[in-house]
Design brief:
Length: 169
């Protein structure tokens, strides 16, 4: 019974988090929306990105336009955190800011592996908004898989989830 309650609480936390808009949990969200002339309605949800929902409901031109808008807001947020400058990453800062400290080495290595994979997948992209969106989308999918695996191992992820960056990367 205890495990059932634990799983329900954990899934409730994840459901709440993945329903949030990309980047909305950061202090720079509203500033970056304004700077990029993007509305909150234009932003995808974390869930929408993790499960590629925008690919289903938008035609190709709408999809590209919304990916660009989302990417530009995300690039602005990442730049304000010092993780990006233009279309270039500060890889070490990205690693230190997006991997929670209070996790075991195995989980940390899995997260680093996922992050490194995302960096490698996006490193040759030159357009900063496209690069930012693809980096964040890849990072969210990677972290989601790691957290999902931890849940089934019985780990209480509410104590390790880094909520400051969960909606960014």
């Amino acid at each position: 019974m205890e495990k059932l309650i634990f799983y329900i609480c954990t899934f409730a936390l994840i459901s709440f988090t993945v329903g949030a808009k990309l980047g909305s949990s950061t202090e720079h969200y509203n500033t970056c929306l304004t700077e990029n002339n993007v509305s909150d309605d234009d932003m995808f949800t974390v869930k929408g990105v993790i499960f590629d929902i925008y690919n289903v409901f938008l035609n190709e031109s709408e999809k590209q336009e919304n990916i660009k808008k989302n990417g530009c807001v995300l690039q602005c947020i990442l730049e304000k955190f010092g993780i990006m400058e233009g279309s270039e990453y500060d890889v070490e800062k990205m690693r230190s800011e997006t991997i929670p400290e209070n996790i075991d080495e195995s989980t940390k290595l899995n997260m680093l592996k996922g992050l490194n994979n995302c960096i490698n997948e996006t490193k040759d992209l030159t357009e900063k908004c496209e690069k930012s969106f693809n980096l964040v989308a890849c990072g969210l999918k990677s972290k989601f898989l790691v957290y999902f695996d931890l849940i089934f191992q019985g780990v209480n992820i509410t104590q390790i989830a880094d909520t400051r960056f969960i909606s960014v990367l």
